[in-house]
Design a protein that fits this description.
Layout: H1 4-17, H2 20-29, E1 34-35, H3 36-43, H4 47-59, E2 63-68, E3 71-76, H5 81-86, H6 94-102
Antiparallel strand pairs: 1-3, 2-3
Helix pairs in contact: 3-4, 3-6
């Protein structure tokens, strides 16, 4: 009986991870911090769409947000047991990395 809340929490975490776009975001965030504007350019989806994905990732405890002026920057949550387990197996999405290298970044 005592493990039921944890089972529900785990089920929600796996639902969040069951989305290809969110997996691409986690891959992009490995080892770096990115702004929503970077992610919109790389993923080719709208700012509200990226923000919705980031909200789900943040609620599940996978990402941390930091405000810098008018921008919000995201990074992976350090010490998340599920991320610690999964990230070493995450494939790099070469097309996303190439688009990120060409991205203009957030205006300052």
């Amino acid at each position: 009986m005592g493990s039921e809340p944890r089972i529900e929490e785990m089920a929600e975490e796996f639902k969040v991870l069951g989305d290809k776009t969110r997996l691409r975001i986690l891959s992009l965030l490995e080892g770096r911090e990115l702004c929503v504007c970077d992610l919109t350019e790389v993923l080719g989806i709208s700012q509200p769409g990226v923000s919705q994905h980031m909200r789900r990732l943040r609620q599940a405890g996978f990402v941390h947000e930091r405000r810098g002026g008018q921008w919000i920057y995201y990074s992976l949550t350090m010490g998340n047991p599920l991320l610690d387990l999964l990230m070493p197996t995450f494939p790099m999405v070469e097309e996303d990395e190439e688009r990120l290298a060409r991205a203009k970044g957030c205006p300052t």
